[in-house]
Amino acid sequence: MDKLIITAAITGGASPESNPYLPKTPREQVEATVEAYEAGASIVHLHPRNPQTGKGENRPEWYAEAVSGIRERCDILVNVSTGGTGRRVDGDWLYKEIPEESVKGRIGVIPILAANPETKPDIASFNAGSPVIDIYNRKTDEFLLKFVMVQSFPDMVHMAQVMKEHGVKPELECYDIGMINNCKVLKELGSLEEPLYFQCVLGVLGQIPATVENLQYMVRNIPEGSPWSVCAIGLNEFYMGTVGMIMGGHVRVGFEDNIYLSKGVPAKSNAELVAKVARLAKELDREIATPAEARKILGLPPRQPAT
User: Fold this and answer.
1) Which CATH number is correct for 6-298, 3.90.180.10, 3.40.50.300, 3.20.20.70, 3.30.450.40?
2) Which among 54, 93, 172, 213 is most buried, taking Cβ atoms within 10 Å?
3) Could you state, in order of their start, the residue ranges of all structural domains in the chain?
């Protein structure tokens, strides 16, 4: 069994209003990353945010500032988001094209960041289909987030080609079993190269629920020898993560998916969430991978020192 890769998804779609500890500015993201690295994370997953408002905005300069700052402090692998590249169906259920500049701001950040060795990401998220991503508040009986990211096979082929051209490994985010099959088709088309790296995302409303049976089913359908990780929403993060560790997979935690350390106890940092997973791994005798070991597991070349 490989050593455990822990990914810290430090910001993502989380709301700055609901979480006062959410890192928003590039400087805050650097500090949160270093803390997560020291707690045991070997990959950080980033989303850029407007430093003034804290809202998510895909601006290459904010990515670059965070990534270069991280590179100066530690050797953690950097995974940037390209989520939402495709067309969307908004909350009124009307098809709306994303403006061209927004599309470029998603997958278009890859060539911009890759042009500089100090800002080039190692990995980028790759939504392997058209996920429904909804959040429903049962207390207020309202949908807080409601959209579908619509991505055709040509969309995914294009995304894969951009990543391949710039030496960035796709993290294949699969919200349901059909997306695993999409990845197999993309491999047959030559768009994806082995080893494929899967992120099984469970518990998102509208997608596959977070159960042991569903995780087992997904993993059975992943091509043999492919590294995989599990990501689950809310406190399922630890339950499903523990099951994933026992099964030989890797784990993603962080404020993007969950803001609680335990029931009713908010986490004050991403590092607290990483440290909890590291403790669980220790109890299971699963060693934690260093960034260098994570590179080898994922089939990535060693990081080249700055010249």
Assistant:
1) 3.20.20.70
2) 172
3) 6-298
